[in-house]
From TrEMBL:
This is Acetylornithine deacetylase/succinyl-diaminopimelate desuccinylase family protein. Belongs to the peptidase M20A family. InterPro entries: ArgE/DapE, Bact_exopeptidase_dim_dom, Peptidase_M20, Peptidase_M20_dimer, Peptidase_M20A. It comes from the Bacteria. Keywords: Cobalt, Hydrolase, Metal-binding, Zinc. Residues 196-317 form the Peptidase M20 dimerisation domain. One of its GO terms (molecular function) is hydrolase activity. Its cofactor is Zn(2+); Co(2+). Pfam families: M20_dimer, Peptidase_M20. It comes from Stappia albiluteola.
Length: 435
């Protein structure tokens, strides 16, 4: 059965490439959330023809959701021959903006040098395509397996996943007894199993001032200068403190094994959407968005207190300094145990297909596993898929075709193991439906 499964996936190589190209050609850019419905329906229509029941679920009233840009998700489910566990493949359909520096059309799905190029090829339409091909090959050979298989295409992962997996998790779509095992085909390299991710705290710091005429700044109080003092303290105190913290989590790359803070944006003074000459005013507000990534050894309360204590010291020392802090997002670190069923199943597949032991890693950034663990309380979840992590979000993004084929074999083997409980697989059905 396993050899037959590998051969069936090899036979589907061109179908896998074509599927990846089709998904890339649907420009699901987030923000604002273009073409979500078109992409969801493409996936749904394909899987409906393979016997899946299809549901389209809109993340009503979530950030960015509107009639123009509906947060439409698709979940496809196929029941087996008898009751059993459920394996769910979850992939996000949104991609980041194109950016500059491309030498190929980012939405043409060009094939060259054994790679498929395009925005989202790596992150993560190649992974979605590999999961679909893996599942199709498996059900063609063994249509009567016990249990159920689900495939979802969800939205907004790049902006937090609130209209996608978070919304669905609150509706019970990522909890037992509906789902038992989840594989997210994020691009973490085909020989790696990603067990989880670091924690994240996004916050907005605002410094307050007093408006006055720009020719007489001494009559006002410049909020931007106050923010400059905050940045100076970050450089002198906070950044060195964070660099001194290290984790035992196998985070990749090596630099992410320390705590980090990124200044995501600063806004102060003249509105940024105005291209005329500025008016001469002392800015009375300056806002900075920070992106703090923290380790499993750190407490979220202490993470926040480090920033607040620094700001309080400034308030005590700097004349007229005042501030406010607003939480935007917080996610605790998560790490699935290495002996979890889904980890062992994928590890066995990697050893069989690639002939090597897997690397176990933690992602430097969070992804939708956070919602499955926190809201769905389902912890048998990992990220595994084709694609090179360092290629994601960059110009001329690509996915290697051989990597997609190999990952599809691993996914198919893992699904078979999870649905059969590791028992001997049923005989291949030579009359299985062709793609």
């Amino acid at each position: 059965m396993l050899d037959a499964l590998d051969r069936r996936i090899e036979d589907k190589r061109q179908d896998l490439v074509a599927l990846t190209q089709d998904l890339i050609r649907i420009p699901t850019i987030n923000p604002p959330g273009d073409a979500y419905v078109q992409c969801a329906e493409y996936i749904g229509n394909r899987l409906a023809r393979r016997g899946f029941e299809i549901a389209y679920i809109r993340g009503q009233d979530t950030p960015g959701d509107s009639d123009r840009y509906p947060r439409t998700n698709v979940i496809a489910r196929r029941e087996g021959g008898k009751p059993g566990s459920c394996v769910h493949f979850n992939g996000h359909i949104d991609v980041v903006e194109v950016g500059r520096g491309w030498t190929v059309d980012p939405f043409a799905g060009i094939v060259r040098d054994g790679k498929v190029f395009g925005r989202g090829a790596c992150d993560m339409k190649g992974g979605i395509a590999a999961a679909i091909i893996a599942v199709e090959a498996l059900i063609e050979l063994a249509p009567d397996l016990a249990g159920a298989i689900e495939i979802s295409g969800t939205v907004d992962e790049e902006s937090g996943g609130l209209g996608g997996v978070a919304y669905l998790a609150r509706q019970g779509y990522f909890s037992k007894p509906r789902v038992d095992h989840v594989i997210i085909p994020e691009p973490l390299n085909k020989e790696r199993i990603c067990l989880g991710h670091r924690g994240v705290w996004w916050a907005e710091i605002e410094t307050h001032g007093s408006i006055a005429h720009g020719s007489m700044p001494f009559l006002g109080d410049c909020a931007v200068r106050h923010m400059g003092a905050v940045i100076d303290r970050f450089e002198a105190e906070l950044f060195p403190l964070l660099a001194s913290k290290h984790t035992d989590m196998p985070v990749v790359p090596e630099g992410a094994r320390s705590s980090t803070l990124n200044i995501n944006s600063i806004h102060g003074g003249q509105p940024e959407d105005f291209d005329g000459l500025p008016s001469p005013c002392v800015p009375d507000s300056c806002r900075m968005v920070i992106d703090r990534r923290f380790l499993i050894e750190e407490d979220i309360g202490e993470v926040k207190d480090e920033v607040v204590r620094l700001l309080n010291r400034l308030a005590a020392e700097r004349p007229r300094f005042s501030y406010s802090v607003r939480d935007l997002l917080e996610v605790l670190p998560t790490m699935t145990e290495r002996d979890a069923p889904v980890v062992k199943a994928v590890a066995s597949g990697i050893e069989a297909v690639l002939g090597q032991r897997p690397d176990y890693v933690i992602s430097p950034g969070s992804y939708d596993q956070k919602h499955i663990a926190r809201i769905g309380h389902l912890h048998d979840c990992i990220a595994y898929g084709p694609g090179i992590l360092d290629i994601a979000h960059r110009p001329d993004e690509f996915v290697v075709i051989d990597d997609m084929v190999a990952s599809a074999k691993v996914m198919a083997r893992a699904t078979l193991a999870l649905l059969t409980g590791g028992k001997a697989a049923p005989e291949a059905n030579g009359k299985g439906r062709a793609s």
